[in-house]
Amino acid sequence: MKTSDFYYDLPEELIAQHPLEPRNSSRMLSVDRESGACEHLHFYDLTKLLRAGDLLVLNDSRVLPARLYGEKEGTGSFVEFLLLSQHGDKTWEIICRPGKKCKPGARFSFGNGRLVAEVLEVKEDGNRIVKFECEGNFYTALEDVGQMPLPPYITEKLADKERYQTVYSRELGSAAAPTAGLHFTSDMLDEIRQMGVNIAYVTLHVGLGTFRPVKEDDILKHHMHTEHFMLPKETADLINQTKVNGGRVISVGTTSCRTLESAAQRCGEILTECEGDTDIFIYPGYTFKVINGLITNFHLPESTLIMLVSAFMGYENTMNAYRIAVEEKYRFFSFGDSMCILP
């Protein structure tokens, strides 16, 4: 298939610029995985679609306030850093701009010296390896100085940092939010548990490569970014038990999906506790080994994420659902509405 096969026309006014309140008041397009039949609901209606014995799998990764604005030591000129991944104690791979200022040996100050960074290396792809210095705990300093790394299509300033975190986030390490989970409230999760639906957690630290466009026309030539994931023993056991009992394993978000499918590649049919890096690329033709259902937001045209959704419920069903969502003026992308795909 070609990348252009996954294009759809999206009016700019449908790109959500801010989250709705309360979280679960967003709209939800319910789609039958086999037939593609669509029903218009709200996220709080999810309880009507779940049943006792189902298992929801959520990604508990927490977003780093990874965007830093500062100045170059000696010149005072402006610089912006975006943290991507940790390579050691206070050593990070970053994107910086303007790049011409970020040469090896250059030093930068953030928050009036609360954080100081020195460029160690320029990588082939233009990313930098930098070493930070600070007094006290690095993450405390980052929380004080950093800002949330909202995607470039969101131009409004976020009033509350926590609205770009899920209510269950706990493992710090993502450069972007696992946005399918932003719709849940704590009360709604309690209600779901009381229904007899189990809830389990995985961790996948979301990298910005998630948002990078597919530049190859032949999707098979696209190289995925690598992300770190963890599948705890408790979650693996719950998945195995759910399948034995005939329940549905429902992934909340493409990040949880990629974690589970990556684990299955390592473990086989019976999942066990595992951790590692994954660059799994799921596109039409892929056979899913773990999940039966998927809750996800609406993704960018020609992205690897819309390809994953197409692999899960079929290309025609996916493009038709997106056409309907545009016609019905659903809100798109990170702060937008959601889609629930179940058998």
Percent in strands: 25-35%
The tally of strands reads 17
Which structural class best describes the helix and strand composition?
A: alpha/beta
| Uncertain residue segments | none
Indicate the overall shape. globular
Distance from N terminus to C terminus (CA atoms, Å) equals: 25 Å
| Helix-residue proportion | 10-25%
Describe this entry's structure for a reader.
The chain has about 350 residues and is α/β, with parallel strands linked by helices. The chain has two domains: about 5-65 and about 160-340, QueA-like (3-Layer(aba) Sandwich); about 65-145, QueA-like (Thrombin, subunit H, Beta Barrel). It contains seven helices and 17 strands. The strands form three sheets. A nine-stranded mixed β-sheet has the order 2-1-17-16-14-3-12-13-15. A six-stranded antiparallel β-barrel has the order 5-6-7-10-9-8. It has a two-stranded parallel ribbon with strand order 4-11. Helix 6 (about 305-315) packs across helix 7 (about 315-325). It is globular. The mean pLDDT is about 95.
